[in-house]
Amino acid sequence: MKLLAAAAMAGGLLMAGAANAGTLFFEDFSGYAPATIAHGATGQDAATSTSGNSITTDYSYRVPNGQNHYGQADSMYDEGTWTIATNPIDVHDLWIDKPGSDPFLLLNGATNDANPPPTAWESQGIAVGPGKYSYSYDLLNLCCNAAGPPGTPSYLQLWYFAPGNPNPINIDSVVQTSSAANGWDHVSGTFIVGQPGGVIRLGLADNSNVASGNDFGVDNISLASVPEPSAWALMILGFGGMGALLRRQRRAVAA
Ligand SMILES: [Ca+2]
Ligand SMILES: [Ca+2]
Questions:
Q1: 105 CA to middle of ligand 1, Å?
Q2: Which of 4, 19, 43, 81 is 20 to 30 A from 141 via CA?
Q3: 240 shares a domain with 203
Q4: Nearest to 160 by CA among 223, 101, 219
Q5: What share of the chain is helix, strand, coil (3-state, %, to 5)?
Q6: What ligand is nearest to the CA atom of residue 211?
Q7: Are 179 and 246 members of one domain?
Q8: Closest-lying ligand to the alpha carbon of 214?
Q9: Are both 168 and 106 inside the same structural domain?
Q10: How far apart are CA 27 and CA 221, in angstroms?
Q11: 22-37 per-position pLDDT tens digit
């Protein structure tokens, strides 16, 4: 019976370990209604989706309604603008024509080279404990403007805020040098949150101050916890305990 109790406890620990390993945040930009987003607001825009996720940004919102030429009210020719749409050419006639029905975040990177640069996208607060986390997102080059410098590098920065620290902590930097707009790049990595954990926010900025070639599509932003080695050790011990119990039971039946 003692062994049974030990196996049950190991099983419980196994369950706890599995529950900790999971997605904490996911944004696919499918739950936002353009009509509810303040139109033309300059800086500090905010929007909430039906999923409960929210966006804050220093960029200015544009309605994805097909006005895609310079001088039209809702085109994204202005630097530092954002929208959620399914086809980039609907808001900028030099951007790629990518017919589809999956909405994603479109950013015309700001040329403001303030340090830190203006926030292009930032999530709501996400409560976390200390530990290791993984993130990933999909990145699409919307450009390229034939009049821009060939191969202009563009940078997107992902960051988080640690408790009590007003300064963003950078967790990745992505450089895009492609002058041809093609498929999605999948970007991923891990980072550590120290004691005592707290509330973090994920964000994106454009670190390039060149107007042509800093235009991005972003989708499927994800944050997940990564089990610690100690958690894995407990899970392996749990499997070992279950194995020992099964072996003992088999011997008991044979006898
Ligand atoms: Ca999407
Ligand atoms: Ca641009």
A1: 8
A2: 43
A3: no
A4: 223
A5: 20, 35, 45
A6: 2
A7: no
A8: 2
A9: yes
A10: 5
A11: 999 999 999 888 777 8
Residues 117 and 192 in one domain: yes
Number of domains observed in the structure of the chain: 2
The parent domain of residue 59 ranges over: 27-226
Q: Are residues 86 and 207 in the same domain?
A: yes
User: Minimal CA–CA distance to 177: which of 149, 203, 158?
Assistant: 149
User: Do residue 235 and residue 210 come from a single domain?
Assistant: no
| CATH, residue 64 | 2.60.120.260
Cα of 214 to ligand 2 centre, how many Å? 5
Query: Looking at residues 66-78, what average pLDDT do you find?
Result: 93
pLDDT for the residue numbered 146: 47
* CA atoms of 199 and 141, how far apart (whole Å): 31
Helix/strand/coil for 240: helix
Q: Render pLDDT for 141-152 as a digit per residue (tens, 0 to 9).
A: 887 554 555 556
- In terms of average pLDDT, the best of 84-98, 191-205, 207-221 is 84-98
- The confidence score (pLDDT) of residue 171 equals 83
Task: Starting from the CA of residue 84, give the closest ligand.
Answer: 1
Same domain, 232 and 222: no
Mean pLDDT of all residues belonging to the chain? 79
Nearest partner of 140 among 108, 99, 184, judged by Cα = 184
Same domain, 168 and 252: no
